[in-house]
TrEMBL record:
<dbReference type="InterPro" id="IPR008042">
    <property type="entry name" value="Retrotrans_Pao"/>
</dbReference>
<dbReference type="Pfam" id="PF05380">
    <property type="entry name" value="Peptidase_A17"/>
</dbReference>
<protein>
    <recommendedName>
        <fullName>Reverse transcriptase domain-containing protein</fullName>
    </recommendedName>
</protein>
């Protein structure tokens, strides 16, 4: 229902905001929008157009994140970010997590923290059944771990 509602509103704005409509079509995963731009002007334009499109649909976008101080200042000026997300780098130095992937905004790098998975796997019995269950536990909607997961699945076919 949510996806159909969003698609409906995006179609309404295709003529007005063609680039932003396409960006949203390619960047929405359930209720998250993940994407970026190469420069601040494009990022700001897209973010304000996204806010307008969703506001017209009765939805409020929040949790904006960026590693650009200039863009962050524009968002603060326009009240697009709340107090807890008004800093480019988290005070704790911890990465921002999105869709199971960690983003270090200071270094602008994405990574998958495998420590919890390793701890879980070390307590399991080595069997085909457990291996298949463990593969299913890997949450990777963005597809960064696809080559690894594929390799494990191919290994399962050989066993």
């Amino acid at each position: 229902m949510l996806a159909a509602t969003i698609k409906h509103h995006l179609r309404k704005y295709q003529g007005i905001y063609p680039e932003t409509s396409e960006f949203l079509n390619n960047s929405i995963y359930v209720d998250d929008i993940i994407g970026g731009h190469q420069n601040t002007d494009d990022a700001y334009r897209t973010s304000t157009e996204c806010m307008h499109i969703f506001r017209e649909a009765g939805m409020t976008l929040h949790k904006w994140q960026t590693n650009s101080e200039e863009l962050q200042k524009l968002w603060v000026k326009e009240d697009m970010v709340s107090g807890d997300s008004s800093q480019v780098v988290e005070p704790s130095g911890l990465p921002f997590k999105m869709l199971g992937v960690s983003w270090n905004k200071r270094e602008d790098s994405l990574y998958f923290d495998v420590q919890n998975l390793v701890t879980f796997l070390s307590s399991r019995v080595n069997s085909k059944r457990c291996l298949l269950q463990d593969i299913g536990r890997i949450f990777d909607p963005v597809g960064f771990l696809g080559p690894f997961v594929l390799r494990v699945k191919l290994l399962m076919q050989e066993i």
